[in-house]
Amino acid sequence: VQFAESGGGSVQAGGSLRLSCEISGITWPDGAIGWFRQVPGKEREGVACIRRTDSSGYYSEPVKGRFVISTDYLKNTAYLEMNGLQPDDTAEYYCVHDRRANLMISKIVHNTGDGHDLDYWGKGTPVIVSS
After folding, report:
1. Taking phi first (over 0 means left), then psi (-120 to 50 degrees means alpha), and beta for anything else, what does residue 18 get?
2. Which end of the chain, N or C, is less surrounded by CB atoms within 10 Å?
3. DSSP assignment of 10-22, as one string?
4. How far apart are CA 70 and CA 12, in angstroms?
5. Exposed/middle/buried for 89, CB within 10 Å: 0-12, 13-18, 19+?
6. Segment 29-60, tens digit of pLDDT
């Protein structure tokens, strides 16, 4: 399983970035794909995920209303559109996939755990938001 993550970078507060995550090496996921983020010294936290069966998006409270997750199944790629970025959004963002969609959704929506038990992880891409 391989992840090709892109789209991270530096932006000023109020700006936008779009992360992309292409997954190869497996049949297109029938579970969920999403992102977690981590700041050095802090616990990793869920950000957003999308369920394969109905393309429903799920978001953590800090990003709800600002971030939008989507997928292009033909390209095996997921996207995270991040708007209204704030310095608190600065972190390393990791693309993640698990066939257990409900597990990932629960972790992100209810902030239950750092996702260490999810199946597949990308290497991460940095997002830096300056004030």
Report:
1. beta
2. C
3. EEETT--EEEEEE
4. 24
5. buried
6. 578 999 999 999 999 999 999 998 888 999 99
Q: Are strands 91-98 and 67-72 parallel, antiparallel or unpaired?
A: unpaired
Decide if pLDDT at 9 tops 80. yes
Alpha carbons 118 and 114: distance in angstroms, whole number = 9
Rounded distance, CA 56 to CA 43, Å? Answer: 26
**Predicted pLDDT at 27:** 65
The sign one gets for the Cα dihedral 74, 80, 113, 51 is negative
Query: How many Å apart are CA 40 and CA 56, to the nearest integer?
Result: 30
Q: What is the DSSP letter of 38?
A: E
Query: How big is the chain, counted in residues?
Result: 131
Distances (CA, A) of 48 to 29, 37, 131: 16, 10, 24
